Amino acid sequence: MLDLISVLSRWAIPLFLFVVLVAGTLRGVRVFEAFVEGAEQGFGMAVKIIPFLVAMIVAISIFRASGAMDLFLGLVSPLFTCLGAPPEILPHALMRPLSGGAALGIATELIEEHGPDSLIGLLVSTAQGSSDTTFYVLTLYFGAVGIRKYRYALASGLTADLTTLLASILVVATVFRG
Amino acid sequence: MVNYVWLSLILVGILTAAFNGEIEVVTRAALEGAQTAVKTAFGLIAIMAFWLGIMKIAEQAGLVGVLAFLVRPVVRFLFPSVPRDHPAVGAIVMNLSANLLGLGNAATPMGLIAMRELQTLNPHPDRASEAMCTFLALNTACLTLIPSTIIGVRALYGSADPTAVVGPTIVATACGMMAAILVDRFLRGIYRARGG
Predict the structure, then answer these.
(1) Do residue B79 and residue B175 come from a single domain?
(2) Residues of B in contact with A146 (CB under 8 A)
(3) Chain B residues with beta carbon closer than 8 angstroms to that of A144
(4) Which of A11, A58, A97, B137 could staple B180 via S-S, CB 3.0–4.6 A?
(5) Structure letter (DSSP) for residue B82
(6) At a CB cut-off of 8 Å and minimum separation 6, what does B26 contact?
(7) What is the nearest CA distance from A27 to chain B, expressed in angstroms?
(8) Distance CA B50, CA A91 (A)
(9) Are residues B149 and B125 in the same domain?
């Protein structure tokens, strides 16, 4: 099953390109001209994202560098221990929705320190793989079309993150117990 | 909500830095953050241009429409406000499939294309539409089959079974996905009632 999925991932894009180009040609699309016409908008879209991304990453960067992040960690850490989860993974859990790179860094450190097959290693691996950087995704996707009012998107994104974290703790505890 | 989160991140950061007696880190962090943001955005130009080009061909060849046709029942359930043959549907499907296969480089451009298409249906251009909120809820939950990056890290540090976390990851991410859909439905109802 896993082999099938990894073969699929490797073939997906080349195959997709092949199908699109062949289908385009058969349907009489002037493929080169169409490609250039579409690609033209790439620059504009990426540039449009800049203000949104700057706003969000600057805020997160200040929060982390000032030590406020660590302060916050200290505050919620007792709550976390109540859940029966090792408090070592808390920094990762809090960083995951904010910064993908930083979260991966923390996960790598924990895996290095405790070993990939320890409970902490397995837990942080699962938590890392099963969720995405909510703040980045929202900023990027809304920024690309110039949306400033996020309404309830942040609330549902963060609820999903929390659910994923709790599910990771439960599943890892169940699967790898003993 | 995003206004308050953003404000608190910065204000709490400044106050903490002042309290710790190292106020200069604020300025440095701000500049570094801004630089990271611009670098990230510029990094997107290449893959965006490539995928926008390919998607233009797919669109003109009618492939996006075919894809949209195939997933109509799911789309009607998740995105009732999107017309069933709309180009947004094709882009949404491709974004979710790319996520599923762990193809981050393709998933992001497809997602941005989907947002652009959803924006054409949005009556308030500066405000997130219901379909966008649902789409982003699905994306932040990030349903994936192979967490390839973390498998790589595990292998690097000598795991006896690097892929042991694949099963748990799929279960956890599916839970997150369901929560995202439910919460999205619930908040959509509340916002509708409030008229916001």
Answers:
(1) yes
(2) 125-126
(3) 112, 115-116
(4) B137
(5) S
(6) A62, A65, A66, B13, B14, B17
(7) 6
(8) 36
(9) yes
**How many distinct structural domains can be found in chain B?**
2
Q: Tell me the shortest Cα–Cα distance from A3 to chain B, in angstroms.
A: 10
Residues 145-164 of A with CB under 8 A from B: 145-157, 159-164
Is residue B184 in some structural domain?
yes
Same domain, B22 and B97: no
B73 CA to chain A: closest CA distance, Å? 23
Contacts of A167 in chain B (CB under 8 A): 171-172, 175-176
Domain co-membership, B31 together with B99 = no
Whether residue B178 is found in the same domain as residue B133: yes
Q: Are residues B180 and B86 in the same domain?
A: yes
Q: What is the pLDDT of residues B104-127, one digit of tens each?
A: 778 889 999 999 999 999 999 999
- Whether residue B32 is contained in a domain is answered as yes
Is the confidence at residue B178, as pLDDT, over 60? yes
| Per-residue model confidence as pLDDT tens digits over A71-114 | 888 888 887 777 778 888 888 998 899 888 889 989 999 999 99
Q: Which of A104, A118, A60, A131 is nearest to B12 (CA)?
A: A60
ipTM value for the complex: 0.87
The two structure tokens encoding residue B26: 């604020």
Contact assignment for B38 to A131 by CB distance below 8 Å: no
Q: In this structure, is residue B57 part of a structural domain?
A: no
Residues spanned by the domain of B74:
62-194
Q: How far is CA B167 from CA A1, B55, B80, in A?
A: 11, 33, 32
